[in-house]
Structure formats: C-alpha cells, structure tokens
Amino acid sequence: MKPKILITRAVFPEVVEKLSQHFDLESNQDDVVYGEAELIRRLQGKQGVFANPSDRISADLINSNPGLKAVCNMAVGYNNIDIAAATAAGVMATNTPDVLNETTADFAWALLMAAARRVTESEHYLRAGEWKKWSYDGFLGADVHGATLGIIGMGRIGQAIARRSLGFNMKVVYHNRSRLTPEQEAYANHAEYLGRDELLRTADHVILVLPYSAASHHTIGAAELELMKPSATLVNIARGGIVDDAALIAALKAGQIAAAGLDVFENEPALNPGFLALSNVVLTPHIGSASGSTRRAMAHCAADNLIAALSGQTPPNLLNPEVLKK
Ligand code: GLV
C-alpha cells in the first residue's frame, strides 16, 4: 500500500502527477486555504504533508497525528513549522534551499531599483493621466549605482544580492550572525562586516534577507529606522515580522527614510492598510521566488524530499537530522 499524503495547496499538475506515482494523495487543487483545525482533520491517517509557507505546522498539528513522518515545505524559509515539536515527535522537516537563490536575489534588486527610483509611484501617476509635462524635478529619487549597499542576513541569497552590486560599482557592508570567510566576502563583492547599528547608519540602501525567528522579530523597529539616512531605501524580501510594520509606516510617512520595497508583511496577506496610503513604498505579494522555472524547481525539490523521506532514505534537505537517531 502506498503511503498517504496531503498536498495542502494547489501546485503544478506535473508535481501532483509525480507524487501520485509514489503516494495515495489528497490534493487541494482547488487551493482552499485551510485553517489549523481543518489541516489537523485532513492530516489524520497521513504519513506526509507537502506544505507551503502559509500552512502553520504547529506542535498541536504534529502531535495530533502520531502517524506523521514528514513535513516537506515548498519554501526555503520554515518558520511556519515548529521544528522542535517535529523533532520531538520524530517527524522529518525539509525545505527547498539553493534552487531559489538567484531568482530571489534578482527580485531584491527589482524592489530596490523600483523603490529608490520611484518606478511604481511614477507609473501610477502616468496611468492616472496626470502626466501633462516633463519637469526637471519630477520624481527625483536616489542613485543606486556608486552607493553603499547594506545587507542584513548574508546567507546564500544575501551573497547573490551582493555579487550583483559589482556591476553597479557599489560598496557592500553586511551584518550576519557569523562573519563570512574571506573567500565568501570576496565573492560577495568584497563585502565588509559591520555591527547592525553601524550598518544602518552607513548604508544608502538596506536589504533584509535574514530568516525569521523569535530572535529576529522586529530586527527593524522605530529605533533602528531612526539610525538610517533620510535618503535611504529599505527592502524586505525575507519574512514579515522582521520589520515592525507600524514603525515603518510612521517612518515613511514622516520622511525619516525615503522609500521601502516590501515583498513580505506582518500578518500577510492581511497587511497593515497604512502601507496602501503611502506612495513611497513598493508593495508586492510575496513573489520573491516567483519565476516559472524557480517555482517549478522548488516544487520538485519539495516532492523529492517527500519521496525520499517516506521511502526510508534521508531527504536531501533535512532540517532536523537529529530525528534520524530516533
Ligand atoms: C519564500 O518565502 C521562501 O521561503 O521560499
């Protein structure tokens, strides 16, 4: 008998087909967003779950299904999974690292360029029929080339962002839990390690790429925004909750920083409506990794992890290897 799995949200049909060769599937191709109680109910009797970042894989969910063996997230971030509870229950958890590094780095640049050079704001003005004449001071923004780029969270995506800055003749400063090796710093456009506050004071543009955890909650709040330059841009492609959104709205309104580019929000998709009233922020619906080929690669990666986990192999992207000792 094939193991039973739940695919919590719609995914590429070819991936559903691939999984169906290995598993007895319950697949949510109607893409209903299940709440926690519904997820718990649907997981009964299943050994695996193909999950995505909007599914909260809580301790309650894990513990209410003793037959569960694997939770495979279609995302590099995994703050939606209670890893400690999974490990304690002997459940393997996996993510999809690496396949999205370059695509997500591209998108950080898209947000930086759009926010610093006021792309969406000026497009709205044009579409609204307000463009009557060219003017010398229309939509003046901040230069990206030649500026100092600050990156907080210098993992693989952060390094890919930094490497792109070479073509813009930028200086890169970074802050990370641990310092990179000299080789990694050289690869990342000779990035220079700084303390977080010094980085915020120094950088012309700041990109956040750190994972969300209790420790990174509100890494950027009112006090940190005060350290930034009034001409600075803040980009968040990491996770909602790393920025205190109410504090950022106040800072953007007051002109304490010039602009922001945000792909992630506290409580998304129900973002703080204060953002919608501001013109100096570019807002996108969590699409950092959303190129066709990368989302396909992520879906296949999550499927391969699930197939390995439920066929007695070690999944390639196991987050809690301690579980194998159980
Ligand atoms: C998307 O947000 C991811 O973590 O892959």
Q: Look up the CATH topology of the largest domain.
A: Rossmann fold
CATH class of the largest domain: Alpha Beta
What is the first-to-last residue Cα distance?
24 Å
Query: Averaged pLDDT, please?
Result: 97
Helix content: 25-40%
Major beta sheet, specifics?
7 strands, parallel
- Write down the secondary-structure element order: EHEHEHEHEHHEHEHEHEHEHEEH
Can you tell me the CATH architecture of the largest domain?
A: 3-Layer(aba) Sandwich
Shape: globular
Heteromolecules bound = glyoxylic acid
Strand content: 5-15%
Would you count the extended β strands for me? 12
User: Low-confidence segments, ≥5 residues, pLDDT <50?
Assistant: none
Q: Brief description of this entry?
A:
With 326 residues, this protein is α/β, with parallel strands linked by helices. Helices cover 33% and strands 14% of the residues. The protein is globular, with a radius of gyration of 21 Å.
Attribute tags:
single chain, about 325 residues, alpha/beta, Rossmann fold, 7-stranded parallel sheet, 5-stranded parallel sheet, 12 helices, globular, binds glyoxylic acid
Plain-language structure description:
This protein is α/β, with parallel strands linked by helices. It has two domains: 4-98 and 292-325, NAD(P)-binding Rossmann-like Domain (Rossmann fold, 3-Layer(aba) Sandwich), CATH 3.40.50.720; 101-283, 3-Layer(aba) Sandwich (Rossmann fold). It contains twelve helices and twelve strands. It has helices spanning 13-20, 36-43, 59-63, 83-88, 101-116, 119-127, 156-164, 182-187, 196-202, 222-227, 245-254, 292-309; strands at 4-7, 24-27, 48-51, 70-73, 92-94, 148-152, 171-175, 192-193, 205-208, 233-236, 259-262, 281-283. The strands form two sheets. A seven-stranded parallel β-sheet has the order 8-7-6-9-10-11-12, with helices on both faces. Helix 5 crosses helix 7 (156-164). The longest helix has 18 residues, at 292-309. It is globular and about 70 Å long. It starts with a strand and ends in a 17-residue tail after the last helix. Glyoxylic acid binds next to loops.
